[in-house]
């Protein structure tokens, strides 16, 4: 036990009239939404790295947070776990997520790092049994240490490739041991700074082979969760191979993995790629590879990934609209890949950031469900494409240019533009959010 969160009560649902900051106003785990408990729809997870491992630095300044568990020993790692599970108890969210480097100290050798990870895994197991908190996904940090400065799976040094493979194996093993619902691969530095020293074809082949080995190992150990890739453009390298949903789907198709791997899609990364969050979710839904989401937001005045907690209900509602259209989460969920601002120093800030974010997501989910149940948006879409339901029109998609051209002249077709009614649909959405 720690005293870090002393005096902070367990957060409970008290409705919109709550007279305290320390309450859920919209997130009621047991509320039925489209015939399913809200908790089971949203499947909230706390990100271990931002909440407990991040020290408050940015590109222009170092540590601002002073946490008693910051340090390089196993005792520090266990104190961090104590604080984490105390916070999980306060929030009552069902899941958490972690990288290996978040939870254990780096050893002098790979074997020592692995043993440290296995030791903290056993410690996690006890706490998970005591609290009922589960693991949404595990992953490996293959980007922070200097050995990965040129990537991991795509590294020009085969020894780094081997080290990365061994690291992922150990992380998959502990994810399996803790009953993780998914395993995520985030290619933090799988890209290049300059083509002057890069063999892009070779690196793509290495990445494809690495992912194939991950899929094969998951089957070997009987991992029945989902393997996920997280898209991210640019940052930290000039060009990331996992740029966005479309790029990754092409990669999966190239290596025959489109039926084996799904995506963990982050709002902030979608924005960096020049897309909206709902665009990336909709495209993944169309491809059948939508697995899980990282919920956060970027500062639109900054050109980098600021990882702020979500506070925009209309944006969140459109995101969950696509999730619901995809049938909702299976093994996936809503992970808060979000961090405090470096001036938000207090334990209360960490709790209330999650409370507010969970309420925003609850409001967004309910709005999305109401939109789907109303059916107005889908009806408008159906009406817009109704002409394609006629046999003479749908048949064009299996016809040829000459036959279609002959029809245009024979029937004297002279199509006139029809309104897309965008503003009307935006007004419709605003009825719900």
Account of the 3D structure:
Its cofactor is Mg(2+). There is one protein chain. The chain has 433 residues and is of the alpha/beta class. It has helices at 38-42, 48-53, 74-91, 100-103, 110-131, 158-177, 200-220, 245-254, 267-272, 277-287, 313-325, 347-374, 376-384, 391-394, 401-411, 422-430; strands spanning 32-33, 36-37, 44-47, 95-99, 134-139, 182-185, 191-192, 226-229, 239-240, 261-266, 290-294, 334-336. Helix 5 runs parallel beside helix 6 (158-177).
Topology:
Elements: E1 32-33, E2 36-37, H1 38-42, E3 44-47, H2 48-53, H3 74-91, E4 95-99, H4 100-103, H5 110-131, E5 134-139, H6 158-177, E6 182-185, E7 191-192, H7 200-220, E8 226-229, E9 239-240, H8 245-254, E10 261-266, H9 267-272, H10 277-287, E11 290-294, H11 313-325, E12 334-336, H12 347-374, H13 376-384, H14 391-394, H15 401-411, H16 422-430
Parallel strand pairs: 3-4, 3-12, 4-5, 5-6, 6-8, 8-10, 10-11, 11-12
Antiparallel strand pairs: 1-2, 7-9
Helix pairs in contact: 3-5, 5-6, 6-7, 10-11, 11-12
Subcellular location: Cytoplasm
Active site: 99, 102
GO biological process, one term: D-xylose metabolic process
């Amino acid at each position: 036990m720690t005293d870090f969160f002393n005096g902070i009560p367990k957060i409970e649902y008290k409705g919109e009239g709550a007279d305290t900051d320390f309450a859920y106003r919209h997130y009621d785990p047991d509320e039925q939404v489209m015939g399913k408990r809200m908790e089971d729809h949203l499947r909230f997870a706390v990100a271990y790295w931002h909440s407990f491992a991040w020290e408050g630095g940015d590109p222009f300044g170092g540590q601002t947070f002073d946490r008693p568990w910051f340090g390089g020993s196993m005792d520090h790692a266990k104190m961090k776990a104590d604080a984490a599970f105390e916070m999980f108890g306060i929030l009552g969210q069902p899941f958490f997520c972690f990288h290996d480097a978040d939870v254990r100290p780096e050893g002098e050798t790979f074997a020592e790092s692995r043993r440290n990870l296995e030791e903290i895994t056993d410690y996690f197991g006890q706490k998970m049994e005591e609290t009922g908190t589960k693991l949404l996904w595990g992953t490996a940090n293959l980007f922070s240490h200097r050995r990965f400065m040129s990537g991991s799976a795509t590294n020009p040094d085969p020894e780094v490739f081997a080290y990365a493979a061994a690291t992922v194996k150990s992380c998959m093993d502990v994810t399996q041991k803790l009953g993780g619902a998914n395993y995520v691969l985030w290619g933090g530095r799988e890209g290049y700074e300059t083509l002057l020293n890069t063999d892009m074809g070779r690196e793509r082949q290495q990445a494809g082979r690495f992912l194939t080995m991950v899929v094969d190992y998951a089957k070997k150990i009987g991992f029945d969760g989902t393997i996920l890739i997280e898209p991210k453009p640019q940052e930290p390298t000039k060009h990331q191979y996992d740029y966005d949903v479309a790029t990754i789907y092409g990669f999966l198709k190239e290596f025959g993995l489109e039926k084996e791997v799904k995506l963990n899609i982050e709002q902030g990364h979608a924005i960096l790629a020049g897309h909206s969050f709902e665009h990336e979710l909709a495209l993944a839904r169309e491809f059948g590879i939508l697995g899980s989401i990282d919920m956060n937001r970027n500062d639109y005045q900054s050109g980098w990934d600021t990882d702020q907690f979500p506070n925009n209900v209309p944006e969140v509602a459109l995101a969950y609209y696509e999730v619901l259209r995809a049938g909702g989460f299976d093994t996936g969920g809503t992970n808060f890949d979000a961090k405090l601002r470096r001036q938000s120093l207090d334990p209360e800030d960490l709790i209330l950031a999650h409370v507010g974010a969970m309420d925003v997501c609850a409001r967004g989910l309910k709005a999305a469900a109401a939109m789907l149940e109303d059916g107005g948006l889908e009806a408008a879409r159906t009406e817009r494409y109704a002409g394609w339901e006629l046999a003479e029109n749908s048949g064009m998609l299996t016809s040829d240019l000459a036959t279609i051209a002959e029809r245009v002249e024979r029937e004297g077709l002279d199509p006139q533009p029809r309104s897309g009614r965008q503003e009307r649909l935006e007004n419709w959405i605003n009825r719900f959010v």
